[in-house]
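Revision sheet: structure tokens.
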Amino acid sequence: MAERAIGTKLKKGTTVIGELTSIGGLELSADTLDTTTLDSDGGYRTFVTGFKDAGEVSISGYFNPQHHKGLYDDFEAGTEQQYTIEFPPKIGAKWEFKAVVTGYSTGAELEDLISFEATLKVSGKPTLTVSGSGS
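Predicted:
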């Protein structure tokens, strides 16, 4: 079920963060702890899962102070906020997570539009919800 990304939204609380051209995905990973002993089978290392990390979400788009100043304020304050990545209704899925803003930048090039980028560091466990309406 390949679908276009058009219609995907990033919300901070219930407010849509507009003018975005890219929303990076969550980067879930897990540490491992080595449980190998001298009598491990066949001389292979063994592991168990350690702490999990949901990574970062990078966003970029066209700078709009009305849509993006709140992220700058959160960066300065270091406050954790609730975010949602809502995929188009046909997909029927969304990520919900808390995050802190760890990066914020704007750019102005001679022959380009004024750009915006930010990085959200996911804090805690994210939730992936899949509704029955996705096809």
